[in-house]
Amino acid sequence: MTEELLERLLTSATPEAYLDVTPTVDIEISDYLNQLLAKKGLKRADVIREAGLNATFGYQLFYGTRHPGRDTAIMLAFGLNCSLLEAQRLLKLAGCSELWCKRRRDAIIIFCINHGYSRQETDEELYRFGEETLLSGD
After folding, report:
1. Which of 5, 29, 72, 88 could bridge across to 68 with cysteines, CB 3.0–4.6 Å?
2. Over the stretch 12-45, which tens digit does the pLDDT of each residue have?
3. Hey, is 84 helix, strand or coil?
4. What is the DSSP letter of 136?
5. Is 90 exposed, middle or buried (0-12, 13-18, 19+ CB in 10 A)?
6. How crowded is residue 95: how many other Cβ atoms within 10 Å of its Cβ?
7. Alpha carbon 138 to chain centroid, angstroms
8. Helix (H, G, I), strand (E, B) or coil at 106
9. Are 99 and 109 in contact (CB under 8 A)?
10. pLDDT tens track for 99-133
């Protein structure tokens, strides 16, 4: 767990004491997207379609030649059927702020992820609450 690793780091006498015994990971967002793809047994084309992304742009994200903005990363999370934890990690790797339940729009998105809504169903909920939809973002 990340919390346990953080505790271990904070209680270490030096950075080396932590780094010498704890493996660290430098992962690109495209690597994470492809890991999720493999883990869930999904096809890129299906994920891109479910996310509502342009096919060329979607493939560029998976190949690492383009980088997603926040809403695009969220849309990918829906396309990949991510859990909330996976979606938050995807956002971090994209260099974007995580979903935060104190923000109205984010709270709706969190609810939708947690309840297995599709990206389209989430956009309908966002629209119903007068919030900007994912497809109109980035």
Report:
1. 72
2. 999 999 899 887 778 999 999 999 999 999 999 9
3. helix
4. T
5. buried
6. 12
7. 15
8. helix
9. yes
10. 999 999 999 999 999 999 999 999 999 999 999 99
CA 64 to chain centre: 15
Q: Which of 38, 119, 13 is nearest to 71 (CA)?
A: 119
Express each pLDDT in 58-103 by its tens digit.
999 999 999 999 999 999 999 999 999 999 999 999 999 999 999 9
Query: Residue for token digits 């609810």?
Result: 111
Instruction: Provide the whole-model pTM.
Output: 0.86
Fold of 28-128: 434 Repressor (Amino-terminal Domain) (1.10.260)
Tokens, residue 128? 């119903």
